[in-house]
Amino acid sequence: MEVARFTTGITTMDTFVHIARGLLGLFVFTGVAVVFSTHRRAIDWRLVGSALLLQLVFAALVIHVGPVRALIEMAGGFFVRLLGFSNEGAAFLFGSFANQDKHGFSIALVVLPSVIFFSALTSLLYYLGILQKIVLAFAWVLSKTMKLSGAESLSAAANIFVGQTEAPLLIKPYLGSMTRSELLAVMVGGMATIAGGVMIAYISFLGGGDPAEQIRFATHLITASVISAPAALMISKILVPQTVSVDRDLRVPREKLGANALDAICTGTTDGLKLALNIAGMLIVFTALVALANHLLADWIGAPLGLNAWIAETTGGVYRTFSLEFIAGMICAPVAWLIGIDPGHLMVSGQLLGTRTVLNEFISYLQLGQMKSAGTFTDERALIILTYALCGFANIVSIGIQVGGIGALAPEKRGDLARLGGRALLGGSLACFLTACVAGMMI
Hints:
Elements lengths: L11 H24 L9 H20 L1 H29 L5 H4 L3 H22 L1 H17 L3 H9 L13 H4 L4 H13 L3 H12 L3 H29 L21 H45 L1 H8 L9 H15 L7 H13 L2 H14 L5 H10 L6 H14 L4 H6 L1 H22 L1
Helix pairs in contact: 1-11, 1-20, 2-3, 2-11, 2-20, 3-5, 3-11, 5-10, 5-12, 6-7, 7-9, 7-11, 9-11, 9-20, 10-11, 10-16, 11-17, 11-20, 14-15, 15-16, 17-20, 18-20
């Protein structure tokens, strides 16, 4: 399997158009960040250039250099094997109900157990000090190329592997003395990447039960999360530029999670169980709320005003009624075009981007997986670009999660965190779009 195999049948002119559209997207999304900057004259354009170069170089290495691609695919294969191991645990507990061949794909019996298992494994790796060493290596690259503080580099690197509330634990001693620019970097980094636990879930959604497909999308998701780290730092430093000197030393705290390895596994299991239950509840409630909203829009507005018939006719049956999906598709279709989506998939892509922002990326990836299975995407390239664009926690709910989670670690910064919430959401979204533009140029 090769990530770059989607170039089959692509002409030189197609490649030129893809690169031109990607460059336009990079320019526009960077420009939006500049418009909302608190201090335009203080923007460090050298940092911006370094961040863009990092994204392009890493994407090119993964997609076009065999040994690097093989290494990332190996990491993707590791995640897929973890899915197999978690299925063993689920089968022990649920018996034949966890058998996909017999009962089909089930989120409750396939996805949620994998989230719990990965959370426990991550906790063990943290206790053993293995995760910190990997994070430190990525942080060193970010710090040296972009001249950032040690703390924000560590947080951005940690976000590649863990979530937006777990990564700040790695820099807990430094949170209280962070500047507004550093705090925003931590927040945007959390919104622009995804945690390993939910990555496991998205691999299941997009890969289904096919191991080759699982490895393919695992590779793309890992690549997206890594590329998004410098993108997030770049956008955050445009939105709130650093105007004072900061500590550039990279120091990982020696704190361990748990009294011993067994305690670390138990702690991780408990945290994973809370996350799995939160995901389950979230899916039930948000799916029901969307259905309720669509019923009201279609029956109370769309039918009396004749919008339902008009929408069905103008969209060729893609949307049959006035709905949240139609509204999101209309609003976010221009963004979908900028990240490189072909004209035939703009509305449905805009729908997924809007759902990610208003609700969350979990539901967007679930819908993307369902659309993939249903054959909605006739262009494989659009499917892959969306895999990159959705790869982040940039949604409204994440503002509250970060203010509450990071604020608990540094209560004196809660006010700053709340005031930066809107910019963090904007920054996380822009970083994900930049990542999708880079992918669109390379694939």
